[in-house]
Structures are given as C-alpha cells and as structure tokens.
Amino acid sequence: MKVFISSVISGMEDHRAAARLAAESLGHTVTVAEDFRASPQSPQQVCLGAVRDADAVVLVLGSRYGAPQESGISPTHEEYREARGTKPVLVFVQTGVTREPQQERFVEEVSGWEGGGYRESFDTPESLRTSVTRALHDWELSQQAGPVDEDELMARTAALLPTRSAHAAGIAPLHVVVAGAPSRQLLRPSALDDASLRRDMQREAVYGDRPVFDPQQGVHEPVIQGTSLLIAQADAQITLDEQGNVRVSRPARDSGRNVRAIGGLPSLIEEEVRDRVADGIRYVGWLLNRVDPTNRLRRVGLACRLAGIGYLPWRTRAEAAQSPNSASMGSGLEAADSPPVVLARAALLFDTTRLADDITVRLRRQVR
Questions:
Q1: For residue 170, what pLDDT is reported?
Q2: Which pTM was predicted?
C-alpha cells in the first residue's frame, strides 16, 4: 500500500519520521515531500499528484499551519482537500500545543468532515508512531476479505430491505441496510439487552455529528423483535440483529422543513437524499465499530431503497429554487432501489461520500 504523509515539515521532522517508521514497519511504501526529486512540475503539482496516487493519507496536525499558497490555504490543507472523499485520511492531532488561528480552523474542518471519523491524538513522536501503526493496521485488516460467499451476502442484504413501509403520505421513507460477513452470530442475545448499547445507539442517532433521528422528536422505548433490537421514532427506526445486520430507516424528506427551506411544490431534493444516505451509511459504520471492535465482520453488503415515492418530483436545490411551483411530476413509482454491493467494511467510513453519490445517482435515474 502507498501511504502519503502530510504535515508541515519545519518543526515536525521527528514526527514525520515516526509516522514513516510506523507505515514502513507494516510493509507499506511511504511517500513524503522530502523524497521528491527535481521536476519540471511545481512542488504543488508533485505533492497533489502523490496524494492522488496514494492508497491512504496520514495527516499529522501540530501547532503550525504553514504558508498559504495561491489557493489561500497551506500545502497541507491542499493535500487534505485533494484526498478527502476519495481515499482514507487518517488524522492525528497533536495535544498540549497552542495552535495558530488558521491551524485551529483547519483542525475544526477536519474534525467536522465525515463526522470526524478516524481521528486520534498524540503528544510525542513515540505516541504518534504507536497511533499510526495501530490505525494503519486496523484499516489494513478491514480491507482483507474473509471466507465470504458474495452471492449469499448480497441475497442476505437484499432480504433486509422492507417490502412495505408504514408511513405518512409524501414522507418517502429511505432505507439503508448493511449485512456483515462472514456470516456468523456476532452478538449474544444478552448483548442486545445491554443498557449501555441501547443508550449509545440512541445518543449517536440523535446527537451524533450526523444524526439519523430528529432531535425534536422523542425516542420510543427500545424493544426486542425476535433476534433484533429496534430503536425507533415516529417516522424513523434502527434495527440491529444478532448477526450484526443493520437497517436505518428515516424519511427521505422532512415535509415541513422541506417546504420552509425551499418553498413551493413538495419534492425529493437530490442533495437532501444524498446527505441522508451518507448519514445512514456513516451511522452503520459507527455502530459496527461499537459492537464489533475487533473486526470479525470484514466484508459488508450495502443496499438502499427509497419507497413511497408516488408522484413526488425529483429536483436539485437549484432547480427547486429556480422554479419552486413547477416541476415534472414523478411517474407514480412505488420504490427505487440501489442494488446490493459487496464492500470492505472500512468503506462505510472511509468511502462514505463516494458510496452516497453512487447510490443517489442510481435512485435518481429510476425516479426521474
């Protein structure tokens, strides 16, 4: 695997060396700016090209931000923005230092993106080396396929999609489902009764960085249905079963907020659907890390269904703003599906943006 190490160079030499040793100790090939040879390309072009060529980026943030370039941001910031959404970015933030104002804003941006996933703290080069080794090792394990029957996994994933949904007219429930593999009993029956698990699931669903429940609504008392734990609100629910299969269901649109924010004809807004798909995927990734921290489930099947579409038009925010009271009506389609795909489990958190984009495109093609 090619690992690109991104940070300010001056003052961080020992930390960069520690990160390099961590990656090389695992057998990976490391790319750092110090190794680049003379080139007709600008340093910016060379560095960003190396980011695109890498399989993963280790981002190390200390106290200094670096000199802004023509883009208005530092080279490290440019490298981060080049990588995010296209490949895993493992973020390591130094503690016990006073960060420059621009660096503080950079750390805030990194922490907010993708729910701040895969971020760790360090204080010394030695602790950074330990953290980088562990993070790369965990990611590498997540990429490895166990003995998985992909046809069985896709069939099990499709079976998680509900055939019918009880919902209010115009809500258009969106279901994101994930099945884990190798197929096995991941959770004992007593684990689903664990009060701390239920509490953590509710808290992340309502108050997480990217919630999948409406914070303005109450949450029903969790219940066990067969071998599944159900946590629900009036129009949304999360199910987790003993095999680690998860379904996140919520409205694809909030009729009140949709109308207030955009005005005019009730619609399925593409950006809102994509965000809710991404939030669902991200929540499942978090939940699997919560119940399976040792990565016994290495592969996952992912599918999505948008139900109850009826005659709701599909529009972008720009289209709705340009013509709020006029749109081509839908065809009365009951449901649109993004069929199951088999992925490395790590993709749920590392490749959330790409997965949500692909699913949204498939849904749009059917609805429109």
A1: 60
A2: 0.66
